[in-house]
């Protein structure tokens, strides 16, 4: 990262592979200083941190609202729950997909669509690392992903 004023946030992600849709978890790591000037620029400054495992959306559709997103943040030696909410509290996949252009956009290979995030427990935290999780309590499984923040030296 180029700034110590950046933070992660957990989101669900829709991935399309032809007609198939898959779901995983990611962080839309954002530069918060840049965000005060340009939200698009702040989102484009950093790569998205994406879990390598995904579930087929049809396996989740009937109990989607019960899936739970969580994020823990570590700052120094202190690790705390940063975000937690069921997916029923944010925009569902059907609404995200309806908002896409109608010209075959969804059928393109490699579509990655981040959902937007859930509220934080106590405001923004500029952490050293983030642990992301999506829990499926119905099928008793989890997708987990962790990443560490390294601030680039400013003299480079």
Feature tags:
single chain, 156 residues, mainly beta, four-stranded antiparallel beta sheet, 3 helices, 11 strands
Shape: globular
- Number of E-state strands: 11
Strand content range: 35-45%
Low-confidence stretches: none
Largest sheet: 5 strands, antiparallel
Report on this model:
The chain has 3 helices and 11 strands, in the order E-E-E-E-H-H-E-E-E-E-H-E-E-E. The chain has 156 residues and is mostly beta strands. It has one domain: Fumarylacetoacetate hydrolase, domain 2, CATH 3.90.850.10. The strands form 3 sheets. Strands 2, 3, 5, 6 and 9 form a 5-stranded antiparallel beta sheet that branches. Strand 7 and strand 8 form a beta hairpin.
In short:
The protein is 10% helix and 41% strand. It is mainly β and 156 residues long.
Layout: helices, strands, pairs:
Blueprint: E1 6-7, E2 10-17, E3 20-27, E4 30-31, H1 32-35, H2 39-44, E5 49-50, E6 55-56, E7 68-75, E8 78-86, H3 93-98, E9 111-117, E10 129-136, E11 141-148
Antiparallel strand pairs: 1-4, 2-3, 2-9, 3-5, 3-6, 7-8, 7-10, 10-11
């Amino acid at each position: 990262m180029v700034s110590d004023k950046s933070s992660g946030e957990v989101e669900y992600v829709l991935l399309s592979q032809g007609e198939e849709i898959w779901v995983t978890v990611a962080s839309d790591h954002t530069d918060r200083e840049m965000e005060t000037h340009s939200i698009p620029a702040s989102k484009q400054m950093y790569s998205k941190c994406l879990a390598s495992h995904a579930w087929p959306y049809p396996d989740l559709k009937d109990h989607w609202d019960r899936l739970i997103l969580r994020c823990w943040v570590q700052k120094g030696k202190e690790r705390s729950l940063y975000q937690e909410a069921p997916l029923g509290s944010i925009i569902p996949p059907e609404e995200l997909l309806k908002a896409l252009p109608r010209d075959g956009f969804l059928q393109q290979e490699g579509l990655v669509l981040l959902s937007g995030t859930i509220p934080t427990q106590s405001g923004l935290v500029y952490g050293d690392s983030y642990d992301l999780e999506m829990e499926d309590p119905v099928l008793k499984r989890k997708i987990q992903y962790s990443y560490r923040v390294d601030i680039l030296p400013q003299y480079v």
